[in-house]
Amino acid sequence: MVIFSKPCCLVAEDQALIALALEAALEEVGIGIAGPFPSCAEALTWVERHTPELAFLDFKLRDGPCTKLAKTLLGRGVPVIITSGCPQGPGTWPELCDVIWLEKPVDPARLLALIERVAPALAHGLPSPVS
């Protein structure tokens, strides 16, 4: 079992450069990372034994849409933010209609502002985002 000494955010992203950028932005402000996981199956395996304070999920991972992963996390009360190259639209899965949806690339200042809004306990002590 992994024990985090700082707040933990699950990152599920199958594009390595995007995953590294997201990981670096979160770690820079003191948030621990679970992942990045390139597939739903890998993330779900981790989630079987752990619950993060927040999750950033790419909509389409190596093994398909992140719907089951998102539903599992939302069912535990974990705030979920979807990051995607595709905009949220009429074809969005019903389970994900009320989830925050960010189009890539994601601005780090916007990321911090969202963390403060959806996971205030996780954001405690983070630097204020620059406008």
Q: What can you see in these coordinates?
A:
This protein is of the alpha/beta class and 131 residues long. The chain has a domain at 78-90 and 98-120. It is built from five helices and seven strands. Helix 2 runs parallel beside helix 3 (67-75). The radius of gyration is 14 Å and the shape is globular. It starts with 7 loop residues before the first strand and ends in an 8-residue tail after the last helix. The relative contact order is 0.17. The model has no long low-confidence stretch (mean pLDDT 83).
Q: Taking all residues together, what is the mean pLDDT?
A: 83
Quote the distance from N terminus to C terminus. 39 Å
Which series of helices and strands comes N to C?
Answer: EHEHEEEHEEHH
Summarize the biggest pleated sheet.
5 strands, parallel
* Count of alpha and pi helical runs: 5
Q: Give the uncertain stretches in residue-range form.
A: none
How many strands in all? 7
Cα Rg: 14 Å
Gross morphology is: globular
Q: Give the % helix.
A: 25-40%
Strand order of the largest sheet: 2-1-3-6-7
Secondary-structure class: alpha/beta
Our estimate of the beta-strand percent is 15-25%
